[in-house]
Amino acid sequence: MTRDLRCTSDLFQTGVVHLDKAAVFLELLPVLAAMRLSRALPIALRLVALVYALWFLQDCVMWWLADAGRNNLWISHIALPVTTGLLMWAFSLWQEDGVARMAFRIAIPLYVLVWLFLLWRVERLDHFSTYASPLACLLLICMAAYTLVTASLRSRETVWRQEWLWIGSGFLLYYGGEVVLMPLSNILFAAHRELHFVYQLFGALGILSTLLVTWGILCAPSHSISADLTGSGARGGSLLMAKELDWQRSARAGDILETRDDGSR
């Protein structure tokens, strides 16, 4: 997950070589995990996998432009509201509280409006994002943290088996690093300083967060299936109990009628 990589061929040649590239190729892991488990995958996890697919395509195009000596930072500006909105919607699907779910979804068009204003008045397409990206990071950090806390409190099953734990932790780690990376990258880029160390560190965070998210996707099917079986069993038990009560009432009514008939005779 290494958006905003290099904007010139020189920067591409002197930029991150190892962890950064590994982080980009590892973005395919959540996609492959989702493809393998596509039939049993909830919508929230499909959105997460879609975001990783878009990130991988974005990084590949940015690398290609950078290698050609062309500015590539404008791609990250344009893609930002798309991936941010998809993740916000995914986090909304983990909210059982209707107010929280609605608040998460209302935040999507509000952020798009703010992004349009910043892009029009403040942001520069040939520089790293100064305001829109850190704002998206802060919003997603809050959503991930809120999901982890509220879902942990209401969970009746083993927390370590829940997909939201691993995915929320992964994004909390990633966006916690990116909220610092974007302003720092602008400062270093303006001062013509080397960005190698910054992207090595961020590449390591990207790798760790991607592994956490991938594990969360792999945990989801077994959890979902067990929950469905439990729910079906509970519903089946309720139906059996209801039928049993109806049968008992009918039997008692029959006994009463029979007793009355005997008494009348």
Description:
With 265 residues, this protein is an all-alpha fold. The protein has a single domain (9-227), classed as Rhopdopsin 7-helix transmembrane proteins, CATH 1.20.1070. It has helices spanning 9-14, 19-26, 28-36, 43-67, 73-92, 98-121, 132-154, 163-190, 196-264. Helix 2 packs parallel to helix 9 and helix 7 (132-154) packs antiparallel against helix 8. The chain is globular, with a radius of gyration of 26 Å. The N and C termini lie far apart (88 Å). Mean pLDDT is 78; it is low at 2-17, 225-249 and 255-261.
Topology:
Elements: H1 9-14, H2 19-26, H3 28-36, H4 43-67, H5 73-92, H6 98-121, H7 132-154, H8 163-190, H9 196-264
> Into how many domains do the coordinates divide?
1
> Shape, please?
globular
Q: What is the CATH class?
A: Mainly Alpha
- Please tally the β strands and state the result: 0
CATH topology group? Rhopdopsin 7-helix transmembrane proteins
How many strands, which pairing sense, and closed or not: the largest β-sheet?
Answer: none
What number is the mean pLDDT? 78
| Low-confidence region ranges | 2-17, 225-249, 255-261
Fraction in helix: over 70%
Which class of secondary structure composition applies to the elements? mainly alpha
Radius of gyration equals 26 Å
Briefly characterize the structure.
The protein is an all-alpha fold and 265 residues long. It contains nine helices and no strands. The chain is 80% helix and 0% strand.
